[in-house]
Design brief:
There is one protein chain. This protein has 571 residues and is α/β, with parallel strands linked by helices. 45% of the residues lie in helices and 11% in strands. It has helices spanning 2-21, 27-34, 38-56, 71-75, 91-105, 135-144, 165-172, 187-193, 202-209, 247-253, 262-266, 301-316, 331-337, 341-364, 399-404, 409-420, 426-441, 449-457, 462-474, 497-507, 513-524, 528-533, 544-548, 550-557, and strands spanning 79-86, 119-124, 175-183, 222-226, 257-259, 278-281, 323-329, 368-374, 378-379, 483-484, 488-494, 509-512. Strands 5-6-4-3-7-1-8-11-2-12 form a 10-stranded mixed β-sheet, sandwiched between helices. A two-stranded antiparallel ribbon has the order 9-10. Strand 5 (257-259), helix 11 and strand 6 form a beta-alpha-beta unit. Helix 6 (135-144) packs parallel to helix 8 and helix 13 (331-337) packs antiparallel against helix 14 (341-364). The chain is globular and about 70 Å long. This is Alkaline phosphatase.
Amino acid sequence: MQRSQEKHKSWASVDSVLDYEHGGMSYTARRTTKNSSKLKFVVILLVCYSFFISFINYGRVSRDTESPVDSDALTSGKKNIIMMVTDGTGPASINMARYFRQYRDKLDIDDVLTLDKYFIGSSRTRSLSSLITDSAAGATAFSCSLKSYNGAIGVDGNKKPCGTILEALKLQGYKTGLVVTTGITDATPASFNAHADYRYMQSLIANHQLGYDTSLGLVTDLMIGGGQCFYLPGSHPQGCRDDEVDLLEKARNSNFTVATNKQEFDQLQLGANASLPLLALVAYYNIPYDIDRQENEYPSLDEEVRTALTLLTEATKDSDQGFFLLIEGSRIDHAGHSNDPAAQVREVLAYDKAFKTVIDYIDSAETETFMVSTSDHETGGLAVGLQIGSNYPEYRWKPDALLNATKSGEYLAKKFSAFQQQTSDKSELEEFIKTEIFETDLGILDYTEHEVSHIINHPESAHDHFVEMVSVRAEVGWSTHGHTAVDVNIYAHCNTDRGKAALHHYLGGNVENTDIGKFWEQITNSDLQHVTGLLDGTKHVPTPAEVEDEVHMFEQEHGFIDHRAEAPELP
């Protein structure tokens, strides 16, 4: 009875809103007086809808119609293929970064991201095993042109290694490369040049990347990013491998140019002073967020991209074949997992800068060069707008709160933990939190004593509290620490008219993520099934130790271990 009364009260509230919006006429009265015009209204609505659908499709070539470009002609000639991935980036992340940049730089509302200018459609992202994909299945859709289960690295739904576009092009004589800001053995890059039943098999993935334990041998000429961890023996202080193999040493002995820090990377002179093959792993794990990155310690994504483009262009200038390059803005995803808006906007802008470098390269290239940029999935369920409390929400969000924050939650959690281990004095810790973290690093001056005491009493959740304080003040919301099923944007460019027409024909509108892989297959005349047949004998099954370490590897990947370490109790 009580539930029935509550339901009646709820509908009564709806009626009151309708009364207000329609000049006080009751809902019942409106329903009675308007019954005679309902059919007419519906007919008009359907006509308007049909006109709208026709309008938005005007000029768009349906994928069910004949291609505007002859398929034989499209596959002819030398080509460069650039696949770009904004890991974990949904439309809201682009929106937030766009308006943050306009606010920060005092720009006109029409001064948008470079990405915005090359938008052509959107992609559906579900995997074989779930309506919400992970990065492994998402990247395998791009690389193998097929749906697989969450966690799959270059294997199909039956856990059989599947030929990737990178491997197919390498066999055709292309030069190939990977550029990321996470570990090079992470899911997205690994899905292009490795095969593993599960994404956490990163020791095996590293082996594959250097040509070991795979029937194809070495297929990647250039790898730039982080991830020394799985290239170093398990006994090394920073090693993560489950054996004593030193892949960095093996690479050096195989005539790789190897760079393991910023100084060695700078000696490459953005590719002008280097040769292939190149292995530049400049961090043990992930390269720090751009908001935290020190320029003298780690390269930017843009520097990595410039280096790769220079080297691959030089290596293919006298060849009949071009290059394939994967570029990933990897840590946008990590910021989404952490619900850290200040870190995420800087990651998106760092990617946009690298994206512009690619656009400029394409426009000046003599070789026909295709670029597609998309996301594997959205992370965090970001909403650029947050209702705080029970009052009717304000229609605004505040980019100044993101501008005031100059460090990520990841960085601050480590900073807080380090200071906490140095003192047992509660007053010192309170002062440190207020002045060093809230005021200096987060730019928050309106903090409350409750916020201070919460961090002192719950140090294990300090990271989450830091980023939540920023999100609330910026009035942006998050629905999850995981992924979502949101469709993601597709951006594309080519320096030929036929290439532009083909991109819009095959990838314009709303497509499956596998359609991107199929597009690469088609324009390069690749046969991924043939490559799949060559992968027999490739090791891809996990060892018992790898199964045992699954949870640990996942937590480490997303930074959940370091900032949640045990902290001493305070008096």
